[in-house]
Amino acid sequence: MRTTVGIIGAGPAGLLLARLLRGAGIDSVVLEARDRAYVEQRQRAGILEQGTVDVLRAAGAGARMDREGLRHDGIELRFDRRRHRVDFPALTGGRSVMVYAQTEVCKDLIALQLAEGGPLLFEAEALAVEGAVTARPRVRFRHQGREDVLECDYVAGCDGFWGVARGAVPAGMGQVFERTYPFGWLGILADVPPSHDELVYARHDRGFALLSMRSPAVSRLYLQVPEGTAPEEWSDEAVWQELERRFETADDWTLRRGDITQKSVTPMRSYVHEPMRYGRLFLAGDAAHIVPPAGAKGLNLAVGDVVVLARALAHEKETGSAALLDDYSATCLRRVWQAERFSYDMTTLLHRAPDATSFEDRLQLARLERLTSSRAAETELAEAYTGFPLA
């Protein structure tokens, strides 16, 4: 099998890259290790930055998002039983975010790829990337019980943190920057309308809590829990009681309860692999970087990566110049590190470390006081939350 760009992974990064390349007249093949049902059901991010929304619309993948997604013009910060709303459009010149689950983004892009795009092979497990520094890299993969080879001009590794793409970069040819956190997020899906019409980020002495949603009828909520916590350690009643404690306010606001349909724990880490390119292999999304979820940046960083890569490949096709491809890693990493910084800031602002001192507690509260009393500080948060420039 032969193509111009071999794409490993049919998550949002790989699927959107294939869509953008099709628009530029560049052929591709997408290899996905899982079956279609798994890809369309795996729960991940749900907040789309303004730039991500704009890209999906421009790619012809925004129709259902615009019908069913929930535009949010702000978030609420809670601490000391107080509530403060951050108004995104007023602080950013009109920018907002969209609540639209990654599962739905994948469904939309898969449908478009199967109807209009190049080959998308499910249950096609990439085994290795070979010859990345040659003019003809290859992806060895297993599909329908036999091994095959995809010959390409370029390989895009969009196969996540545990995929094979990053493993093709030899030891010593890259540098890793990493931080792990001594806590995670216990997340639940509940069949109950959200208790607030925008996301609520709560800092509490018992730990962080987040009120989010998947639809007008389904709530998504999170609790900070110790690292290594198992979901079954928390009964449904204990989850609701703890959420009520951490979201408590001085007014008459109440948390709605409902049937919990899913419960999981997400570990917290920051990770960056530099560079994001090795020869003709380009890493994108979680294959190159991980952010803690408090900043809502993971999916949006992946979109930024593939926008830069698609533009660079189109430029090379149109002009013969590889200048933008040569700049791919540096261009992406400028945005990646800003997102890492913002995600770290949000994590340390709102989560209480297990060994936190009273001094550190007061510093957190002082930072929140500054955010809620200074338009300049509030603007910085709003600009970062709604999205850094894609290039």
TrEMBL record:
Residue ranges of every copy of the FAD-binding domain listed in the record: 2-343
Pfam families: FAD_binding_3
Alphabetical list of InterPro entries matching this protein: FAD-bd (IPR002938), FAD/NAD-bd_sf (IPR036188), RIFMO-like (IPR050641)
Alphabetical UniProt keywords: FAD, Flavoprotein
Official protein name in the record: 4-hydroxybenzoate 3-monooxygenase
Organism listed in the record: Streptomyces griseoloalbus
